[in-house]
Amino acid sequence: MTQRINRRQFNQALAAAGAATALSPFGIVRAQSARLKVGLLLPRSGVQAGIGQDCHRVVQITSGILSDLGLPGLEIMNGDTESNVDVSRSRAERLISEGAQLLVGAFDSGQTTAIAQVAEQRGIPLVINIAAAPPITEQGYKFVFRNFPTAPMILGDAFGNQLEVFAATGVAPKTVVFMHVNDTFGQAMQKGFTGVMTKFPAIPYKVADVIAYDPAARDLSVEVAKAKATGAEALVMVSRLNDAILITRELVKQRWTPSAVLSMGPGWYEDQYLKTLEKLGDGPLSFVPWYDPNKKLAQQLLAAHGKAFPDISLNTNHVYTFEALLVAADAFKRAGSSNPKALADAIRATDIKGNVSPGPGIQFNAKGQNDKLKNSAIQNRGGKLVTVAPKDAANARPELPMRPYDKR
Amino acid sequence: MPVEVYFNVAASGLLTGLVYGLMALGLSVIFGVVRVVNFAHGEMMTLAMYLTLVLFGALKLDPLILLVPIAAVMFAFGYLLQAGLINPFINRPEHSQFMLLVALALILVNVQLIIFGPDAKGIRTAYSFDSFQMGKIIVDASKVYAAGAALVVAAALFAFFKYTLLGKAIRACADNYDGARVVGLNVKHLYALTFGLGAACVGAAGAMLMVVADVTPAIGPAYTLLAFVIVITGGLGSMPGALLGGLLIGATEALGGVLFTPSAKSMFAFALLVLVLLFRPQGILGRKAA
Predict the structure, then answer these.
(1) Orientation angle between helical segments A109-122 and A184-197, nearest 10 degrees
(2) Tell me: the pLDDT tens digits for B180-216?
(3) Chain B contact for A47 (CB, 8 A cutoff)
(4) Which fold has domain A152-291+376-407?
(5) Which residue of B has its CA nearest to A82?
(6) For domain A36-149+294-348, is the CATH number 1.20.1050.10?
(7) Which residue in A216, A225, A245 is closest to B8 by CB distance?
(8) Torsion of CA A38, A41, A42, A44, to 10 degrees
(9) Are A389 and A376 in contact, with CB atoms under 8 Å apart?
(10) In terms of pTM, does the model score above 0.90?
């Protein structure tokens, strides 16, 4: 049977088509059906290339999970910061010029600071995946949001989790050496360390020495010799991957097994660290932004990640890059528009309870910082990672002191 | 701080400095004869390190044994590079040579990045975590073996230049280009041989360095800079100067790090370079330009 269209129906259809055409340049009609253009800025070449590429892995599994959550898809526009602050700034400018409606990035505090300036000037929201330097969200920016703990937050939780670990194991070092990589992140952590430590009078150790080292160092024998000479019982570390491996090698060669290695940064829990050092990589505790293995979305992300990358463990890089994209998709859905101001307003009103990272969820304060994030303590054991604190997000008990390197 | 810490650190710096010295020796040999400054030196070094990584994975032979075939491969690479690419630039302005070698360096870095990825890669030998203890002094076994091998290779190179006809011919080219041509020496061939020898030094140094350090494509430019600091300190074109420069830079970095702050290790190496440039611009063992 054929259906005939009468004059009235034809006129209504024509009017609707006309209205759609007239409104479409303003994005009023298209907004929800189109995908949000997200400029993803990561250091995918240069010194931090490995980390940038690690962060990027999660992009491949994000769309499926967002779809399962009933969130709109994202069109990812990739930008390589080349591990360089100036390049970060120019890549952000370029992505915005090419149509990016929201930026995500950029792992490194220095690079993120540069991108945040561009985002604020151009009025495009930036959702920071990883960057811990506090000043980024202390500038009064209206378009910059960070779902990642600041250095003082990481340190505060680290001290809290350390106390929990010391109580559980009965091992509490009296002296430590604080070694840190001498870059933006390391310096921010170093500045915060002493200040935050004073808020935890129960911390049992004193800092025998603070040793800063070059992030591109080829040899850390001098640094380890100097640390060993202090006679400290344990090491507190803020490092990256390559230097964590170099320091462990030097500890073995210089025949020094600290009672504990307490890391407050990346490196010591990463897959390559575990693979490279095998049984010599067991023992260090990392106090890091992690995931809560008991949360449903964390299990979903773990499953999808394990399927896509069976040889790579889910880690901080994946979790927080995923959550930044989750924030973007959630805000886009609620804003109903890709208008930057509407997106920024929607991000500011974010309230995601069922997230991946520990803590009550994702909300931003007036400065654009998620100040409710919690960090975990994880330990390398038998080439795997177990969460040992806080108790409500743990799946194993901590073990200290570290087993001597020559008895493994 | 206990006094043995200074001995430990100084020994470590000197041993590492010997390997760096061998790397810089290659740069010095090339400049001393061909008068081309190899701005791709560090990148050639990382190429040798990756060759070591691949051969170690395939053959499971010790890098200190692998240094022989790797030096041979790098010799061939250097010879062909000079004969095919650099020779046409020998009489061109220095900035042309500079751009050529910087372009080569960039190509090498990016090819390595494509093939091996950005992550640091290392090898683990039976003695990777060994150390020798003498009283309170602990010395890294890997560094001792690598430094020993560096001394053997450097001695072989010195002997080649001093006692073989070919070595003497190359030195003749370096001393008097026109004179060498007048007596019938094939200068282009000798230049290519020299570049090959320099590359072989880098190959050997790369194999040794894999015993004590990891490799990433991004580290090439840092090695180029280090090689320049060493040869300028020791004397550009002077072979003993390169080894001496390596020892001095290694020890300065190490002791500067322990006496002051480790994050400023490189600063002390550059401070030494500035002092040398101020008081002996030709380098410690370099000759003044005529």
Answers:
(1) 100
(2) 889 889 998 999 999 999 999 999 999 999 998 899 9
(3) yes
(4) Rossmann fold (3.40.50)
(5) B218
(6) no
(7) A225
(8) 100
(9) yes
(10) no
